[in-house]
Design brief:
Shape: globular
Radius of gyration: 17 Å
Strand content: 15-25%
Distance between the termini: 13 Å
Number of domains: 1
CATH superfamily: Class I glutamine amidotransferase (GATase) domain
Mean pLDDT: 91
CATH topology: Rossmann fold
Helix content: 25-40%
Order of helices and strands: EEEHEHEHEHHEEHEEEEEH
C-alpha cells in the first residue's frame, strides 16, 4: 500500500496563546485515502518548513484546503514535481499549485536560478497577488450526509486527467471557497470550469492535479483519490 502524505492546513500567527497555533487535517481526507487503498500520513512541518527527509518518506502528496498559505505547502509541491510523485491539491491546495507554477514561470522570465521558495517569498514582498476574490462559491455549513446541498456543476475537459479519473465530462463538486485562481500558470492546463467560468481543475502532465472543489466531502468521486493510491 502506498503512503500518502497529507499536507495540513494551519494557523500559525497566534501570539497571545500558543495553543491557538495549530495544524489541522479534516477527518474526511484520511478517510478517503483509506477507502481507496492508501495509508495516510500527516506531514507536520517544523513551524513553517519541511525537511526533505520527511517528504522522502511518502509515495504521493495531498494538500488540504485551508484559509492561509504557507511556505511548507510550496515546499511540498516543489518536492513532488522534482521527484515525479503524484500530487493532489484541493481548494487552497490547487491555488498553491498554481502559485508554484506561476513562480516557476517568473523564474524563467527573470533568469533566476535560485531556490523557488525564496523567489516566492520575494514576489510576495513585492506585492504580487496570486489569487482573486470570487463571489457565491461559499456554502456553509456542510451538514454530514447532506453534501449535495453545497455542490455545483463542474464541466470537465474530455481526455483530461480528471475526465479519466471520474469517467465524466460533467461532475458535481462541493464548493466552499472565497478565493480562486484568476489566471492559470503557463505550464498548467485548465481541465475543469464552473458554469460561471471559475477554474475548477488544472493538471501538469499526469502526476499533478489541482481541484478547487472539495472531493473529500463526497464518496461519489472515489477515482480522484485513487489517483494518489494507484488503485484500479
Amino acid at each position: 500500500m502506498k503512503k500518502i502524505g497529507i499536507v495540513p492546513a494551519a494557523k500559525l500567527d497566534a501570539v497571545e496563546n500558543i495553543w491557538d497555533n495549530i495544524y489541522r487535517i479534516v477527518t474526511t481526507y484520511p478517510t478517503r485515502i483509506y477507502e481507496n487503498g492508501g495509508i495516510p500520513i500527516g506531514l507536520l512541518p517544523n513551524v513553517d518548513q519541511y525537511s526533505e527527509e520527511l517528504l522522502d518518506m511518502v509515495d504521493a502528496i495531498l494538500i488540504c484546503g485551508g484559509t492561509q498559505s504557507f511556505d511548507y505547502q510550496f515546499q511540498s509541491i516543489d518536492h513532488a514535481v522534482k521527484h515525479g510523485k503524484p500530487l493532489l491539491g484541493i481548494c487552497l491546495g490547487m491555488q498553491m499549485i498554481n502559485t508554484y507554477f506561476t513562480v516557476k514561470a517568473e523564474a524563467e522570465k527573470r533568469g533566476y536560478e535560485g531556490d523557488l521558495l525564496e523567489l516566492y517569498k520575494q514576489m510576495k514582498h513585492e506585492g504580487r497577488s496570486f489569487l482573486k476574490r470570487v463571489e457565491d462559491h461559499v456554502k456553509f455549513p456542510v451538514p454530514l450526509g447532506r453534501e449535495d446541498e453545497c455542490k455545483h456543476k463542474v464541466l470537465v475537459k474530455n481526455g483530461s486527467l480528471l475526465h479519466k479519473l471520474t469517467g465524466s465530462e460533467e461532475i458535481y463538486g462541493a464548493t466552499i471557497h472565497r478565493y480562486c485562481v484568476g489566471e492559470a500558470a503557463p505550464d498548467l492546463e485548465v481541465i475543469g470550469r464552473a458554469e460561471d467560468g471559475t477554474i475548477e481543475a488544472v493538471q501538469y502532465g499526469d502526476k499533478v492535479l489541482g481541484i478547487q472543489f472539495h472531493a473529500e466531502a463526497d464518496r461519489m468521486l472515489p477515482g480522484i483519490f485513487k489517483f494518489l493510491t494507484g488503485q484500479e
